[in-house]
C-alpha cells in the first residue's frame, strides 16, 4: 500500500507520486517539490520503446525505472530504500514493465497526427554576418528556421564546389512550438563574381532548396575604384616630380 511506499523515503517527504496508472497523492509544494517524469523513447516508430520512470526530489533524482532493465534502480543513496521496496511489489513492478505499451504506445497514437507527423517547411535565408568590403574576411550565415521534424542537412558551396573547411554549425535550436532553427556559418573572403550557395535538404520538401548569395562590384564601386586608381597615380607622379626637382 501507499503507507509502506512512503516509509521507504526520508521522513521529510510526506507523500510521493506513483507510477503511471497508480493513484495520485496530493503533494504540498510550499516546503519541497517531488516530480515524477515518464519518458518514452521510440525507435523505428513504435517497434522499439524504451520507457523511463524518473522520481525526483528537489532536483535530485532518487529512483529510476528502466524498461531495459525491468526494475527500479537507485540513482542516489537516498532512493535506495524505495527502489528495494518497489522491486518487491510485484504488481506495481509488472505495471511499470508494461508501461512501454500501456503508457508509451497509447500516447504515441494520440500525438502521432499533431506532433510525430507534423511537417514544417521552414525558410532559408543567406546573409553576411557583418558587411565587409571585398577581399576582406567575412562570415556568411545560412539560416534555416521553422522546420519540423528536426532532421535536416545543410551544405555550403562556393562557385559550385562544396566547402567543408571553415564551416561551423549551431546545431538544432528548438523554437518552443515543435519547430527548429539552425544556422551554418562559413568563413569567406568575397571576391567580385563569387557565388555562394546554401543547399538544404529536409523531409518536408520534395527536392532540396538552394539559396544563392553573391557580392559584385556595382557601377558606382567601379567608378570609385577607377577614380582612386587615377588619383593614386597622380599623387605618385607628383611625388616623383618633387624628388626630381
TrEMBL record:
The keyword Membrane applies. It is a single-pass type I membrane protein. Gene3D superfamilies: Class II Histocompatibility Antigen, M Beta Chain, Chain B, domain 1, Immunoglobulins. It is found in: Membrane. GO terms for cellular component: MHC class II protein complex. SUPFAM superfamilies: Immunoglobulin, MHC antigen-recognition domain. Residues 137-208 form the Immunoglobulin C1-set domain. This is MHC class II antigen. It comes from Balaenoptera musculus.
